[in-house]
Design a protein that fits this description.
By secondary structure, this protein is mainly α. It contains twelve helices and five strands.
């Protein structure tokens, strides 16, 4: 699985976060939809409501301890409720329990680690985004933003990502390779990601069956690029290059 540790560059493009990995594989991380964010918010409301019921039950038990003691305990017990989103996001790498269930996460728009200051900014602006007018400002800004951001996100420089991605390894040139694979062509690293993509697309298409001369020309071009003079079969050579490339990528990850 790819994580942000593999990234060498991050850039928001429309509603996607383009991740350029160390192996020149580009993954598009989608930002969380308005629907996902609303469901996550409602799940957090349910959790907070459950906590509130527990607090009320505790206060009833403490009813005989005196008014001052009840107020003190009430304030103490209210702290987790008030700082719910801030505390969880800071402690859980940008997720509350609701966000975790919905598999969404707060991230920096430039791909940097989210700072405590950014979490605090998002939390403070919840009073404008969510508390006022039943969350209408947040709904409007998320729906109208190309990055699905609320006002707090704009101010803090954050975005909420959907961790359930429609982009999988099968959409890239990267493939899992057995650890005991022996690299035949170390110079495969001279090939660009675009050239590796050509190899992958060639092997996955009907070109192999319908146009062997074209496959041979592709193999010859790759052989020339990595300075290989002789190979036996064009298809086998291309498959070996792809395996070698991915094995080296896994080894360096």
């Amino acid at each position: 699985m790819y994580t942000f540790k593999l990234c060498t560059g991050l850039k928001i493009v429309s509603s996607n976060l383009s991740i350029h990995t160390a192996h020149n594989v580009v993954l598009d991380m989608k930002t969380a939809s308005l629907g996902d964010r609303i469901v996550a918010y409602l799940l957090d409301i349910v959790i907070k409501f459950g906590y509130l019921l527990i607090v009320l039950a505790i206060l009833r038990i403490l009813a005989g301890t005196g008014r001052t003691a009840m107020i003190i305990f009430g304030v103490i017990l209210a702290i987790p409720f008030v700082f719910y989103s801030l505390g969880f996001e800071a402690a859980m790498n940008g997720q509350t329990p609701g966000k975790k269930i919905m598999k969404i996460q707060v991230a920096d728009v430039e791909g940097k680690p989210v700072t405590l200051g950014q979490y605090i900014t998002r939390w403070l602006f919840r009073m404008i985004d969510v508390a006022l007018f039943y969350g209408l400002p947040a709904i409007i800004t998320i729906a109208s933003s190309s990055r699905n951001q609320r006002i707090g996100d704009f101010t803090a420089g954050t975005v909420v990502l959907a961790l359930r991605q429609s982009v999988f390894l099968s959409h890239t040139s990267f493939r899992e390779v057995k650890k005991d694979h022996v690299v035949s062509y170390d110079s495969v690293i001279l090939l660009s990601e675009a050239e590796i993509k050509v190899i992958r697309d060639t092997l996955r298409s009907k070109i192999l069956q319908n146009n062997p001369p074209l496959v041979k020309r592709i193999a010859d071009r790759m052989a020339s690029k990595i300075q290989v003079d002789i190979y036996t079969d064009a298809e086998t050579f291309l498959r070996t290059l792809l395996l070698d490339y991915n094995h080296i990528a896994q080894r360096e990850a």
